Amino acid sequence: MRRVYLDHSATTPLDPGVLEAMLPWMREGHGNASSPHASGRAARAAVEAAREQVAVALGVSPLDVLFTSGGTESDNQAVKGIAWAAREAGRGTHLVTSAIEHHAVLETCEWLTEHAGFTLTVVGCEPDGVVDPQRLLDAVRSDTVLVSVMAANNELGTVQSLGEIGPALGSRGVPLHTDAVQAFGRTRLEPDDWEIGALSLSAHKFNGPKGVGVLMLRRDLPAHPVLHGGGQERGVRSGTLHTAGIVGCGAATELAASSLNEEAPRQRALRDHLRDQLLAVGGVSLNGHPEARLTNNLNVAVTGCDGEALLYALDARGVEASTGSACQSGAAEPSHVLRAIGAPNDRAHLRLTLGRTTTPADVEHAAAAFREAVKLLRDAGGGFV
Q1: Is 327 a catalytic residue?
Q2: The model's pTM
Q3: Is 260-379 assigned to CATH 3.90.1150.10?
Protein backbone atom coordinates (compact mmCIF):
# COMPACT_ATOMS: atom_id res chain seq x y z
CA MET A 1 0.00 0.00 0.00
CA ARG A 2 1.17 3.51 -0.79
CA ARG A 3 2.01 5.46 2.38
CA VAL A 4 1.56 9.23 2.38
CA TYR A 5 3.03 11.17 5.28
CA LEU A 6 1.10 14.38 5.97
CA ASP A 7 2.16 15.02 9.54
CA HIS A 8 5.20 17.23 8.95
CA SER A 9 4.20 19.58 11.76
CA ALA A 10 4.70 16.69 14.19
CA THR A 11 8.12 15.80 12.82
CA THR A 12 9.89 15.70 9.47
CA PRO A 13 12.03 13.08 7.72
CA LEU A 14 15.76 13.55 8.20
CA ASP A 15 17.14 15.03 4.99
CA PRO A 16 19.77 12.77 3.35
CA GLY A 17 22.22 15.67 3.05
CA VAL A 18 21.78 16.47 6.73
CA LEU A 19 22.48 12.84 7.61
CA GLU A 20 25.64 12.90 5.50
CA ALA A 21 26.86 15.96 7.38
CA MET A 22 26.26 14.20 10.70
CA LEU A 23 27.77 10.80 9.91
CA PRO A 24 31.47 11.67 10.41
CA TRP A 25 30.65 12.97 13.88
CA MET A 26 28.66 9.86 14.68
CA ARG A 27 31.40 7.51 13.48
CA GLU A 28 34.68 8.97 14.65
CA GLY A 29 34.12 12.56 15.81
CA HIS A 30 34.22 11.60 19.47
CA GLY A 31 35.86 14.71 20.92
CA ASN A 32 34.18 16.85 23.57
CA ALA A 33 33.77 20.36 22.20
CA SER A 34 34.89 21.75 25.56
CA SER A 35 38.19 19.84 25.57
CA PRO A 36 41.45 21.60 24.57
CA HIS A 37 43.05 18.69 22.68
CA ALA A 38 42.87 18.12 18.92
CA SER A 39 39.68 16.04 18.97
CA GLY A 40 37.99 18.59 21.19
CA ARG A 41 39.11 21.48 19.02
CA ALA A 42 37.76 19.73 15.93
CA ALA A 43 34.40 19.23 17.62
CA ARG A 44 34.38 22.86 18.75
CA ALA A 45 35.07 24.03 15.20
CA ALA A 46 32.15 21.94 13.92
CA VAL A 47 29.83 23.37 16.58
CA GLU A 48 30.85 26.93 15.79
CA ALA A 49 30.38 26.35 12.06
CA ALA A 50 26.84 25.14 12.79
CA ARG A 51 26.25 28.14 15.03
CA GLU A 52 27.25 30.39 12.14
CA GLN A 53 24.82 28.57 9.82
CA VAL A 54 21.95 29.15 12.25
CA ALA A 55 22.93 32.79 12.75
CA VAL A 56 23.03 33.47 9.01
CA ALA A 57 19.65 31.79 8.53
CA LEU A 58 18.09 33.96 11.25
CA GLY A 59 20.01 37.11 10.40
CA VAL A 60 21.47 37.45 13.90
CA SER A 61 24.89 37.33 15.52
CA PRO A 62 26.36 33.87 16.24
CA LEU A 63 26.90 35.13 19.79
CA ASP A 64 23.11 35.15 20.21
CA VAL A 65 22.69 31.48 19.20
CA LEU A 66 22.56 28.76 21.87
CA PHE A 67 22.04 25.04 21.31
CA THR A 68 19.57 23.04 23.40
CA SER A 69 17.87 19.64 23.32
CA GLY A 70 14.81 20.93 21.46
CA GLY A 71 11.93 23.35 21.34
CA THR A 72 10.55 22.44 24.75
CA GLU A 73 13.84 23.14 26.49
CA SER A 74 14.32 26.35 24.52
CA ASP A 75 10.86 27.57 25.54
CA ASN A 76 11.45 26.67 29.19
CA GLN A 77 14.87 28.32 29.25
CA ALA A 78 13.58 31.48 27.62
CA VAL A 79 10.47 31.95 29.75
CA LYS A 80 11.87 30.83 33.10
CA GLY A 81 15.31 32.29 32.57
CA ILE A 82 14.15 35.75 31.51
CA ALA A 83 11.43 35.83 34.18
CA TRP A 84 13.77 34.83 37.01
CA ALA A 85 16.43 37.35 35.99
CA ALA A 86 13.86 40.14 35.74
CA ARG A 87 12.41 39.33 39.15
CA GLU A 88 15.88 39.33 40.73
CA ALA A 89 16.56 42.73 39.16
CA GLY A 90 13.33 44.08 40.63
CA ARG A 91 11.69 44.76 37.29
CA GLY A 92 8.49 42.86 38.03
CA THR A 93 6.76 39.49 38.04
CA HIS A 94 4.05 39.76 35.37
CA LEU A 95 3.94 37.59 32.25
CA VAL A 96 1.73 37.81 29.16
CA THR A 97 1.06 35.01 26.68
CA SER A 98 -1.74 33.80 24.40
CA ALA A 99 -4.33 31.09 24.87
CA ILE A 100 -3.08 29.12 21.85
CA GLU A 101 0.58 28.73 22.78
CA HIS A 102 2.31 25.36 22.81
CA HIS A 103 2.11 23.60 26.17
CA ALA A 104 5.86 24.19 26.57
CA VAL A 105 5.08 27.89 26.96
CA LEU A 106 1.66 27.77 28.61
CA GLU A 107 2.58 25.23 31.26
CA THR A 108 5.88 26.97 31.96
CA CYS A 109 4.05 30.25 32.56
CA GLU A 110 1.50 28.49 34.75
CA TRP A 111 4.28 26.80 36.74
CA LEU A 112 5.85 30.19 37.42
CA THR A 113 2.53 31.47 38.76
CA GLU A 114 2.00 28.41 40.96
CA HIS A 115 5.53 27.98 42.31
CA ALA A 116 7.49 31.20 41.83
CA GLY A 117 5.14 34.06 42.67
CA PHE A 118 4.52 35.37 39.16
CA THR A 119 1.22 36.64 37.77
CA LEU A 120 0.00 35.77 34.29
CA THR A 121 -2.35 37.30 31.74
CA VAL A 122 -3.51 34.92 29.00
CA VAL A 123 -4.84 36.77 25.96
CA GLY A 124 -7.47 35.08 23.82
CA CYS A 125 -7.58 34.95 20.04
CA GLU A 126 -10.01 35.53 17.22
CA PRO A 127 -12.00 32.60 15.73
CA ASP A 128 -9.36 32.31 12.98
CA GLY A 129 -6.54 31.96 15.51
CA VAL A 130 -5.18 35.49 15.15
CA VAL A 131 -3.95 37.08 18.36
CA ASP A 132 -4.85 40.77 18.15
CA PRO A 133 -1.66 42.79 18.75
CA GLN A 134 -3.61 45.53 20.49
CA ARG A 135 -5.09 43.06 22.98
CA LEU A 136 -1.57 41.92 23.80
CA LEU A 137 -0.37 45.47 24.27
CA ASP A 138 -3.38 46.29 26.42
CA ALA A 139 -2.39 43.41 28.72
CA VAL A 140 1.08 44.86 29.35
CA ARG A 141 1.55 46.50 32.75
CA SER A 142 4.32 48.42 34.43
CA ASP A 143 5.54 45.18 36.03
CA THR A 144 5.41 43.06 32.85
CA VAL A 145 8.77 41.36 32.29
CA LEU A 146 8.04 39.14 29.27
CA VAL A 147 5.51 38.57 26.50
CA SER A 148 5.60 35.18 24.76
CA VAL A 149 3.68 34.74 21.50
CA MET A 150 4.31 31.97 18.99
CA ALA A 151 5.21 32.91 15.42
CA ALA A 152 2.73 30.42 13.96
CA ASN A 153 0.33 28.02 15.62
CA ASN A 154 1.18 24.34 15.49
CA GLU A 155 -2.43 23.21 14.97
CA LEU A 156 -4.09 25.94 12.93
CA GLY A 157 -1.04 27.24 11.08
CA THR A 158 -2.17 30.82 11.74
CA VAL A 159 0.76 33.25 11.55
CA GLN A 160 0.94 36.07 14.08
CA SER A 161 1.92 39.70 13.41
CA LEU A 162 5.27 39.69 15.17
CA GLY A 163 6.45 42.58 13.02
CA GLU A 164 3.83 44.72 14.74
CA ILE A 165 4.01 43.16 18.20
CA GLY A 166 7.79 43.19 18.70
CA PRO A 167 8.54 46.86 18.01
CA ALA A 168 5.50 47.96 20.04
CA LEU A 169 6.77 45.95 23.02
CA GLY A 170 10.30 47.20 22.45
CA SER A 171 9.14 50.79 22.75
CA ARG A 172 7.85 49.88 26.21
CA GLY A 173 11.00 48.04 27.23
CA VAL A 174 9.29 44.65 27.37
CA PRO A 175 11.10 41.71 25.72
CA LEU A 176 9.32 39.39 23.29
CA HIS A 177 9.91 35.64 23.19
CA THR A 178 8.50 33.69 20.27
CA ASP A 179 8.17 29.96 19.78
CA ALA A 180 9.09 29.72 16.09
CA VAL A 181 9.30 25.93 16.05
CA GLN A 182 6.59 25.61 13.38
CA ALA A 183 7.38 28.81 11.51
CA PHE A 184 11.05 28.44 10.65
CA GLY A 185 11.61 27.26 7.09
CA ARG A 186 7.94 27.84 6.25
CA THR A 187 7.54 31.59 6.55
CA ARG A 188 9.73 34.68 6.82
CA LEU A 189 11.27 35.49 10.20
CA GLU A 190 13.06 38.78 10.91
CA PRO A 191 14.28 38.71 14.53
CA ASP A 192 16.23 41.97 14.26
CA ASP A 193 13.57 44.04 12.49
CA TRP A 194 10.83 42.60 14.70
CA GLU A 195 12.83 43.24 17.90
CA ILE A 196 12.56 39.66 19.11
CA GLY A 197 14.51 39.08 22.31
CA ALA A 198 14.36 35.29 22.34
CA LEU A 199 13.32 32.72 19.74
CA SER A 200 12.95 28.93 19.94
CA LEU A 201 13.60 26.37 17.20
CA SER A 202 13.63 22.57 17.00
CA ALA A 203 15.71 20.88 14.30
CA HIS A 204 13.41 17.92 13.69
CA LYS A 205 10.66 20.28 12.49
CA PHE A 206 12.73 21.24 9.44
CA ASN A 207 14.32 17.94 8.36
CA GLY A 208 17.03 17.91 11.00
CA PRO A 209 17.68 15.43 13.82
CA LYS A 210 15.53 14.98 16.89
CA GLY A 211 16.96 16.00 20.24
CA VAL A 212 18.55 19.27 19.10
CA GLY A 213 17.12 22.76 19.37
CA VAL A 214 18.10 26.40 19.20
CA LEU A 215 17.49 29.30 21.52
CA MET A 216 18.25 32.67 19.99
CA LEU A 217 18.81 34.77 23.10
CA ARG A 218 20.08 38.33 22.88
CA ARG A 219 23.29 38.89 24.82
CA ASP A 220 21.84 42.03 26.40
CA LEU A 221 18.74 40.20 27.67
CA PRO A 222 19.54 38.72 31.11
CA ALA A 223 18.40 35.14 31.67
CA HIS A 224 19.17 32.77 34.52
CA PRO A 225 20.02 29.18 33.56
CA VAL A 226 17.48 26.41 34.01
CA LEU A 227 20.20 23.73 33.81
CA HIS A 228 23.26 24.19 36.02
CA GLY A 229 26.58 22.49 35.45
CA GLY A 230 29.64 23.08 33.33
CA GLY A 231 28.59 26.48 32.06
CA GLN A 232 28.49 25.69 28.35
CA GLU A 233 26.59 27.94 25.94
CA ARG A 234 27.37 31.30 27.55
CA GLY A 235 26.69 29.83 30.96
CA VAL A 236 23.00 29.66 30.10
CA ARG A 237 22.72 26.02 29.05
CA SER A 238 25.11 23.58 30.70
CA GLY A 239 25.81 20.12 29.33
CA THR A 240 28.21 18.43 26.91
CA LEU A 241 27.42 19.61 23.41
CA HIS A 242 25.88 17.04 21.05
CA THR A 243 28.29 17.61 18.18
CA ALA A 244 26.66 15.34 15.59
CA GLY A 245 23.20 16.68 16.36
CA ILE A 246 24.36 20.29 16.30
CA VAL A 247 26.09 19.74 12.95
CA GLY A 248 22.83 18.27 11.66
CA CYS A 249 20.90 21.22 13.05
CA GLY A 250 23.20 23.65 11.28
CA ALA A 251 22.90 21.81 7.97
CA ALA A 252 19.11 21.58 8.26
CA THR A 253 18.84 25.26 9.16
CA GLU A 254 20.88 26.27 6.14
CA LEU A 255 18.83 23.98 3.88
CA ALA A 256 15.49 25.30 5.16
CA ALA A 257 16.51 28.95 4.83
CA SER A 258 18.07 28.58 1.37
CA SER A 259 15.09 26.70 -0.06
CA LEU A 260 12.29 28.77 1.51
CA ASN A 261 11.60 30.85 -1.60
CA GLU A 262 11.22 27.66 -3.64
CA GLU A 263 9.55 25.35 -1.14
CA ALA A 264 6.97 27.75 0.31
CA PRO A 265 5.12 28.40 -2.98
CA ARG A 266 5.44 24.74 -4.02
CA GLN A 267 3.90 23.51 -0.78
CA ARG A 268 1.26 26.24 -0.85
CA ALA A 269 0.11 25.13 -4.31
CA LEU A 270 -0.12 21.51 -3.19
CA ARG A 271 -1.87 22.51 0.03
CA ASP A 272 -4.41 24.65 -1.80
CA HIS A 273 -5.15 21.85 -4.26
CA LEU A 274 -5.70 19.43 -1.39
CA ARG A 275 -7.83 21.99 0.46
CA ASP A 276 -10.10 22.47 -2.54
CA GLN A 277 -10.63 18.74 -2.91
CA LEU A 278 -11.43 18.28 0.77
CA LEU A 279 -13.84 21.22 0.92
CA ALA A 280 -15.63 19.83 -2.14
CA VAL A 281 -16.67 16.77 -0.14
CA GLY A 282 -19.33 18.79 1.69
CA GLY A 283 -19.68 19.34 5.41
CA VAL A 284 -15.99 20.29 5.54
CA SER A 285 -14.77 23.73 6.63
CA LEU A 286 -11.40 25.36 7.20
CA ASN A 287 -9.98 25.99 10.67
CA GLY A 288 -7.59 28.92 11.03
CA HIS A 289 -6.99 32.02 8.96
CA PRO A 290 -7.57 31.47 5.22
CA GLU A 291 -4.53 33.52 4.16
CA ALA A 292 -2.29 34.33 7.15
CA ARG A 293 -1.24 30.73 7.70
CA LEU A 294 1.74 28.50 7.11
CA THR A 295 2.01 27.38 3.51
CA ASN A 296 2.13 23.70 4.45
CA ASN A 297 -0.78 23.67 6.93
CA LEU A 298 -4.32 22.46 6.30
CA ASN A 299 -6.70 22.07 9.23
CA VAL A 300 -10.33 21.20 8.57
CA ALA A 301 -13.50 20.48 10.53
CA VAL A 302 -15.59 17.56 9.26
CA THR A 303 -19.23 17.09 10.20
CA GLY A 304 -20.66 13.64 10.79
CA CYS A 305 -17.34 12.07 11.75
CA ASP A 306 -15.41 11.31 14.92
CA GLY A 307 -11.85 12.60 14.85
CA GLU A 308 -10.10 9.47 16.06
CA ALA A 309 -12.18 7.26 13.78
CA LEU A 310 -11.32 9.47 10.82
CA LEU A 311 -7.61 9.26 11.64
CA TYR A 312 -7.73 5.47 11.78
CA ALA A 313 -9.75 5.26 8.57
CA LEU A 314 -7.18 7.42 6.80
CA ASP A 315 -4.29 5.43 8.24
CA ALA A 316 -5.89 2.24 6.94
CA ARG A 317 -5.83 3.86 3.51
CA GLY A 318 -2.18 4.84 3.76
CA VAL A 319 -2.52 8.47 4.88
CA GLU A 320 -0.78 9.63 8.05
CA ALA A 321 -2.21 12.81 9.55
CA SER A 322 -3.20 14.09 12.98
CA THR A 323 -6.29 15.31 14.74
CA GLY A 324 -6.91 18.45 16.76
CA SER A 325 -8.32 16.34 19.56
CA ALA A 326 -6.42 14.84 22.47
CA CYS A 327 -7.44 11.85 24.54
CA GLN A 328 -7.47 12.81 28.19
CA SER A 329 -8.75 10.58 30.98
CA GLY A 330 -10.23 8.20 28.44
CA ALA A 331 -12.39 10.87 26.79
CA ALA A 332 -11.68 12.59 23.50
CA GLU A 333 -11.76 16.34 24.07
CA PRO A 334 -10.91 19.25 21.81
CA SER A 335 -7.41 20.65 22.26
CA HIS A 336 -6.91 23.92 24.10
CA VAL A 337 -6.33 25.57 20.72
CA LEU A 338 -9.64 24.40 19.31
CA ARG A 339 -11.40 25.47 22.49
CA ALA A 340 -9.78 28.90 22.22
CA ILE A 341 -11.22 29.46 18.73
CA GLY A 342 -14.62 28.11 19.75
CA ALA A 343 -14.46 25.06 17.48
CA PRO A 344 -17.57 22.86 17.75
CA ASN A 345 -17.19 19.57 19.61
CA ASP A 346 -19.54 17.62 17.35
CA ARG A 347 -17.17 17.18 14.43
CA ALA A 348 -13.74 15.86 13.55
CA HIS A 349 -10.82 18.27 13.35
CA LEU A 350 -8.10 17.03 11.04
CA ARG A 351 -4.63 18.50 10.50
CA LEU A 352 -2.73 17.62 7.34
CA THR A 353 0.71 19.19 7.01
CA LEU A 354 2.95 18.95 3.97
CA GLY A 355 6.72 19.00 3.68
CA ARG A 356 9.75 18.80 1.42
CA THR A 357 8.96 15.19 0.47
CA THR A 358 5.29 15.76 -0.41
CA THR A 359 4.44 15.21 -4.09
CA PRO A 360 1.38 15.89 -6.27
CA ALA A 361 0.71 12.14 -6.29
CA ASP A 362 0.69 12.17 -2.49
CA VAL A 363 -1.95 14.88 -2.50
CA GLU A 364 -4.16 13.00 -4.96
CA HIS A 365 -3.90 9.83 -2.88
CA ALA A 366 -4.74 11.72 0.29
CA ALA A 367 -7.78 13.38 -1.27
CA ALA A 368 -9.13 10.07 -2.52
CA ALA A 369 -8.53 8.43 0.86
CA PHE A 370 -10.31 11.32 2.60
CA ARG A 371 -13.37 10.97 0.39
CA GLU A 372 -13.54 7.24 1.03
CA ALA A 373 -12.99 7.55 4.77
CA VAL A 374 -15.59 10.28 5.27
CA LYS A 375 -18.21 8.38 3.27
CA LEU A 376 -17.49 5.19 5.19
CA LEU A 377 -17.82 6.87 8.57
CA ARG A 378 -20.90 8.89 7.69
CA ASP A 379 -22.62 5.80 6.32
CA ALA A 380 -21.76 4.01 9.57
CA GLY A 381 -23.02 6.80 11.81
CA GLY A 382 -19.80 8.77 12.10
CA GLY A 383 -17.73 6.36 14.18
CA PHE A 384 -18.61 8.16 17.42
CA VAL A 385 -18.10 6.28 20.69
Answers
A1: yes
A2: 0.96
A3: yes
- When pLDDT is averaged across residues 71-100 and rounded to a whole number, the result is 99
CA distance 231 to 382: 55
CA distance 162 to 242: 31
76 or 329, which is more confident? Answer: 76
User: Stretch 119-124: mean pLDDT, rounded?
Assistant: 99
Q: Of 360, 180, 376, which is closest to residue 277 (Cα–Cα)?
A: 360
Residue 177, helix vs strand vs coil? strand
Domain with CATH 3.90.1150.10 in the chain: 260-379
Contact 320, 4 (CB under 8 A): yes
The amino acid at residue 334 is P
Query: Does the structural domain 16-258 have CATH classification 3.30.565.40?
Result: no
Of 109, 249, 305, 327, which one is the catalytic site residue? 327
Q: What is the pLDDT of residue 331?
A: 41
Q: Who contacts 282 (Cβ-Cβ below 8 Å, separation ≥6)?
A: none
DSSP assignment letter at 159? B
Structural contact between residues 187 and 178, judged by C-beta atoms closer than 8 angstroms: no
Name the DSSP letter for residue 203. G
- Measured CA to CA, the distance from residue 164 to residue 41 in angstroms comes to 42
